[in-house]
Amino acid sequence: METLASLLHTSPATAWMAVKVLMAFGLIMGIAPPLTWAERRGSAMIQDRIGPNRAALFGKIRILGLVQALADGVKFFFKEDLVPPHANKRLFWLAPLLAFVPAMLGFAVIPMGRSFLSGGTEYHLSLLDPGNGMGMLFPMAVGAMAVYGILVAAWSSNNKWAILGGMRASAQMVSYEVGLSLAVIAIFMVTGGYDPHEIVKAQQGTFLGVLPNWYVFRQPFGFLVFFVCMFAEANRLPFDFAEGESEIVAGFHIEYGSMKFALIGLAEYGHILGASALITTMYLGGWGIPFVADHGQIPVIVTFLVFLTKVIALCLVFIWVRWTLPRFRYDQLMNLGWKKLLPISMANLLYFAYRMRG
Amino acid sequence: MFLTFAILALAGALALLLQKNAIEAGLCMALSFLGVSGLFVLLGNPVAAALQIIVYAGAILILVLFVIMLLNSHEEEPAEVSRPIQRWGSVALVAVLGLGAFRLLNGSPALAELAAKPVTGASTNLHSLGDMLFSQHLLGFEVAGFLLLAAMIGAVALVKKNL
Amino acid sequence: MGVLVKKVELTWWERLYVVSVAIGMGVTFKHFIKQLLTPTSKRYTIQYPDMKKEMPKGYRGLHELKRFEDGAIKCVACFMCQEACPARCISIEAEEFSELNFTQGFEEKRPATFKIDMLRCIFCGMCEEACPKDAIWLRDNYELAAYDRLSMNFGKWDLINTYAEPDGKARLTQAEESPMTPSRRTVAL
Fold first, then answer.
1. Are A320 and C29 inside 8 Å of each other by CB?
2. CATH code for the part of the protein at C63-183
3. For A152, which of B21, B27, B127 is closest by C-beta distance?
4. Which of A321, A348, C25, C41 is deepest in the core (most CB within 10 A)?
5. For the segment C70-79, what is each residue's pLDDT rounded down to a tens digit?
6. Element spanning A279, H or E
7. Complex ipTM value
């Protein structure tokens, strides 16, 4: 770390911050395009199809169609950037950014690996160091801001399908945030802290002797609620009410094209990544290797890889669920959110509060 | 840093008042909320900042925007007649209230304390907040909860045809 | 007639969703694995330019004008196909054949031009039915596309030479026809 800092002529703290920012940004930008590929190929395999496999580098190297993402990117850049004449121009331009930025920001507090000592100072693998007082509240706050992208996109398009989609999505996201928060509070209570580092630390070791000491196993109902709500927050099927081919065509992004559309699409995958990272940190032990109580001797890179593996596996689950379940009906969605998930998470909260009574 | 957030909050609030379009006004309000939460962080209270965003910007404002979109009134209603007396009266009122608030703030002991001893590293976290709520401010907390419950029951009673 | 849609009542077990969802995900996972392990050649998808569909017996695609083994055209320009064609896409011009020293000693006519307008052809197979000499076959080539209208007008040369291998489909009525069809070998010169 010191050598890097001296190379860059800055203090170790600044150098480390730069490394972290690059890492977090590279992680998102590096995983999102392959995710689109995984989505398309995976969905094809699930439906007994083949999927995109024609795009090739220099007309020769196909690599299972992985280049398709690249080709799509190039295509998006060269498409006409059309703003519909009746749209609200300022907000129409702002909306993709509003969708994209929260998707990126959510990562800031997630620890991606073991903290380590170097030259007397402790370095953490999360953008915000622990003890900032924000903790897990930060991704939730950022997640709450994510609705604005959809809402603004929907409204500024001045299109009735878009508005319908945006309205459905905003009502859904606000509803599911309630159940989500209650599930999260149960975790905070059991951990005795709300910093992601503490939450990850609290999940090391074994549970009942045979299971990893993860909150999935300790709070299965809380996990269920959180997991379902994360689908709703990331606007993924079966909860992607912002869209709806059968009723409202493409929903909130119906008027978008070219790079703005690409940004909205990237934001969706950013949300999936963010949701996966959150679930990993809260319920799957973060960067902790299962069954291992003391991570002091394990190299940092291993913990980072463990974290990455968990996140990518969860992303694949997101894709898998999307191609298994059809979209809910709107009343079913509200029913599920308010009458099922909310009581479950409340009962979960009360149960753990009861167990913690002094 | 303080200036950035303060300007953000004030500009958002001003734009909210001057904006003719309801949705854009709502977005300006969100901007001002962001500025305020930034100020909270600077004051060493990140919990309040997070809650400000989660509750106000993330939930309440979204619901307000939702209702505006539901009503879908795109055209602005112009004022029927200009009311010069009311306008100047409101300006005077704002000035008086602002002056009063400024005097009040300037004279408060908390500000003096803050001026003498600026915020240190120890920031408010959920622990201290919870302790405070359930010990010193228990009555207020309970009353607020009770009030919200009453409001909720009232809303349900208003909407439901046959209870 | 209206159809009465029965409302499906879910049992409480199904209404929990979790189990049903898990079963559904199992199904999709099974498909995923199955498709992943199937070699490309055995998948349902036929990756067209690389792989081609095996056309069924009796498929009626692009016509071929048949020839005898020595290369002489079988068609005698009798205009039966032109008459039979419901789409009127065949146009033949006959010519007298006089090169006696070459092959077709006993035949006097052959087509000077034999054109089929593939844009009009409906591939009904009537010409094939009508042909007394079994000289026109509809075979399995379905890749008929061109950049302009003119090149969709297939001439004699195209119709004779499009198919590389001499025999495409097995004749469905070969058994009855073979004794009547004069084989080139049986004709003494």
1. yes
2. 3.30.70.3270
3. B27
4. A348
5. 777 888 888 8
6. helix A258-283
7. 0.71
